[in-house]
């Protein structure tokens, strides 16, 4: 049985139990404590009143509140509540007259005959107030249920929006990464065929990771680090001896779960803007992890020809990664990006609190 069906069955049983409790206590148990003999017609009237009040509850809950009150027609709702209560009171009094209940109660000795007894009021105030009470309870419960339903729908829509946005961001990151990598391999084929074959093998392994591992919302840190290592090795194939690359991997004691493809844009940005074909440079990448957090510290050299690019932004991958961090780890990450013009160094410091 689905969760929704179980919830509906539970709600139905709760309604049955509450109505039985209300009917037995107020409409049947209390009259029974009066003592004496009550005619069968009295219990028939009480049963009819019980059915009328149940009808008032669900008429208000299922029809009047959603179609009148929730459409901001407050005056119409008040008018409907008054008309329904008056009509139900009239039906209860008519039932009493049809059953000749007053005469039967007098004969049963429950009321003494008094000469010049004042006439009964046109409207039974007790029944009218009872109808208003049921209407009020029904309105309150319906309003709370509607608020809860709206809250659940808003939460579901927000989750769907976040999920769709994350899928779009990953779809934008992946082609961006492969476009740059394929360009590098294409350039390498003109220089070293064997190295280009090795590069294609690493790329195919990375593609399997992207196609299969990144479909889930989370992946293990060890797999993400292996993916970064493959990328670094792939990028080093086209570097000259002037560029020094240092990678300090984390010591993974207990494998953690992180969002896939989260570290790559920062590494990719370092290789894109941190090397030069004519000047010496360096890239330093350090990843540290413990049971509660993950830290990435990355430094790379910058040059005058790519400084403007860094100031304007770091491309599709970096901007999307910022957005993914906001969605996946709201208020649980620290990202610092700084450029030291005097030292010619660009630095990224990222800390994610996983727990």
TrEMBL record:
InterPro entries: Bact_2-comp_sensor_kinase (IPR050640), HATPase_C_sf (IPR036890), Sig_transdc_His_kin_internal (IPR010559). The keyword Electron transport does not apply. The chain crosses the membrane at residues 12-30, 42-62, 74-92, 125-144. The keyword RNA-binding does not apply. It holds the Pfam family His_kinase. Gene3D superfamilies: Histidine kinase-like ATPase, C-terminal domain (3.30.565.10). GO terms for molecular function: phosphorelay sensor kinase activity. Keywords: Kinase, Membrane, Transferase, Transmembrane, Transmembrane helix. Residues 165-242 form the Signal transduction histidine kinase internal region domain. One of its GO terms (cellular component) is membrane. PANTHER family: SENSOR HISTIDINE KINASE YPDA (PTHR34220:SF7). This is Sensor histidine kinase. It comes from Pararcticibacter amylolyticus.
